[in-house]
Amino acid sequence: MTVNLQDIVHAADAINGKVDKTPCVYSRLLSGITGAEVVLKFENLQLTGSFKARGALVKLLSLTPAQREKGVIAMSAGNHAQAVACHAQRLHIPAVIVMPRYTPNTKVEQTRSFGAEVMIRGENLEEASEVAQRVALERALQLVHPYDDECIIAGQGTVALEMLEIHPDLDMLIVPVGGGGLIAGCAVAAKGIRPSIKIVGVQTERFPAMTQALEGVPIECGTSTIAEGIAVKRPGKITLPIIRDLVQKMLLVNEHDLEQAVLLLLKEEKTVVEGAGAAGLAALMTDREYFAGKHVGIILSGGNLDFLILSSIIQRGLVRSGRLIRLQVELRDVPGALTVVSKCISQTDANIIEVHHQRAFTHLPLQSAEVEFVLLTRGLEHIQEILKILNAEGYKPRLIDEGSE
Predict the structure, then answer these.
(1) Which of the 8 DSSP states describes residue 229?
(2) In the predicted model, what is the mean pLDDT of residues 339-365?
(3) To pair with 209 at 20 to 30 A between CA atoms, which of 41, 352, 359, 385?
(4) Is 27 a catalytic residue?
C-alpha cells in the first residue's frame, strides 16, 4: 500500500498547530433521531471551511526550496483551491488555481482573497484538470492534485486520527467520497488503529464514479449536484486500490437526501454544512437499519455553501414540511373582494408572503379571478385549519403542490 499509518502520524506531526483540531463531539439530538450513537467531526469549521487544509499543507511542506520558489498550481471546484491558496500564502509560495465555470462565486472569491491567481476554465473538473496540467508544464509549476497524491492522502487521514483519539470505540466511520483522498487516508488511519472498524463511503447518485469503478462497470455521471465537492468523474489511481482493500460499503444518496441533511444539521446542530459535507448524515438517515445501535463517526467535511443555494434549500424544506404553501382561491372580480379573503386568512394567523392576482390566463367566467397566495404556516394541522375556514366562507381553496402545474 502506498500510504501507511506511520505516514499519517508523520503528517499529523507536520501540521500540528498549523491546522485546527476541529471539534469531535457526540450528538445527542441526532443519535435520538437516527437510532445510532452519532459522533460528528466538524471539519466545516477549519479556517478554509473544509478538511482540504490538511492534505494541502502536508503537500506544500514536502516541496523542495526550488519547487516552492517556482510556485504551485491546483485545479478545484472550491475547497482544495482555498486550502492550497491559504497555505501557499502562509508559506510565501506563488499559487495558481484553475476552477471550473460552475464553481459557486463564494468559493472563487474566497480563493482570490488568499492571494492566488484564479483561472476560470472548463465546464467541469476534468476540463479544469487538463488546463492545470498544461499550464503546469508551460510555467514549470508543481501540480498539487486534490486527491491522487500520497501526501494529500496522508494529510486527510489525520481527520480519523483525531476522531479515534477522542472516541476510540467507534464501530463505523462514514466518509464522503469524490476522488477518494479523504476516505483512503481515513481508512488507512482508522484500520491501523482499530482493525475492527467499518469504513463506509458515501457518494451522490448523480456522481457515483468511485462506486462504479469498484464494481467494474462503465462510469456514468450526471451534470450537476448540490454536493459539488464530491462531483468527481475520475477516481484516483492511488486511492482506488486503497478503497477496494479497506472500505466495507459504498452508499448512494440523492439530492433530496442531501438537502434534508443540510437542513437537519442547520436546525439541530446550528451548523452550516455544504452538500458534500452532509453526505454522511444523509446516508445515515436513509439507511438507518444498517447503522442502528452502532457507534458511528460522521465527517462533516466542508461548510462552504453558497448563500443562494442555502436559501433555496431552506425554502424547499419549508415547502416539504408544509410551512410554506401556495393556495389558490376563486374570487368575484369586484372591489374589496381581495381584502375580504385576505382578512379571512389573517384570522387564522397565517402570514401572507406573496399574492398573485390572475384575470386573463384562466378558464373562469368573466367577472371572476384566481388569486394565488403564498402563505407561511405552522405546519400541516394549521393548513387544514386554513382550508376549513375558507371553505366555510365559500371560497373553494385549492392547494398547489410543489410539483404541479
Answers:
(1) G
(2) 80
(3) 41
(4) no
